[in-house]
Amino acid sequence: MATARLVLLVALVFGTSGGAWAAQEEDVAAPVIHALRLLAGSGGDLGRHGGVPCDSWRLAVEAYNMRDWQTVPASCEGYVGNYMLGGHYRRDSAVVVDEAVAYAEGLKLGGKGKEVWVFDIDETSLSNLPYYATHGFGTKPYNATSFNAYVLEGSAPVLPETQRLFRKLISLGIKPVFLTGRTEDQRAITVANLRRQGYSGWMKLVLKPVGFKASAIVYKSGERKKLQDAGYVIVGNIGDQWSDILGTPEGARTFKLPDPLYYIG
């Protein structure tokens, strides 16, 4: 099993690296996203899926060339685990956020306080990596019962790069709006989790109605349309899934964070 080949080390979530870690090129400066850390860098064993190297499989996923997939290929579990727990995931996220910050800083605001920026939550603002690290890094079919139980713990850690963007936008006078696929019955624990991880000052938190059956694209584009109809200008939109940022109105500019763990259409 690929997980057995991953060598994990338990470290403090907000601690600093020890001597052995200082020599690791792939190590990430604190705060880390998840307490389990790889002894090997994210280069690791690339593995193969159907004859295709797993790094190429991940590229196809991120570029939206591969769609409607159900699980991470079993042969790529080790690769995805190394990618997520090592420094590569953080570096890729930083590149996206650097571009988003530069774009935001260059905006000329209308002065009426109507500019908003839409944020997804899961794998965008908060990380569910503690859950996926114990569930095969996406190689196992989605289990709503166990995942919702994890959400209700309210323990999802912050994604530091996204929080950097969030705080920059507030300083610029742009109002953050959370638009999530989480359901309305998870509002209280979601608010508590966000606040516990240092988020504050958002304008609105939109959750999906319980029992809502339409696709993520239909739901999220519909909620963005409501914002637009209320007179708000969506200057930016960031998510980890293409379904977070597709569908009219998308926003003046969209940003896609990496996520090879799962697909939502």
From TrEMBL:
Molecular function per GO: nutrient reservoir activity
Entry keyword annotation includes Magnesium: no
SUPFAM superfamilies the UniProt entry points to: HAD-like
Record's keyword annotation contains Transcription: no
Keyword annotations: Glycoprotein, Signal, Storage protein
Signal peptide boundaries: 1-22
Highest rank taxon of the organism: Eukaryota
Family, as annotated: Belongs to the APS1/VSP family.
Function: May function as somatic storage protein during early seedling development.
Protein name as it appears in the record: Stem 28 kDa glycoprotein
Organism expressing this protein natively: Urochloa decumbens
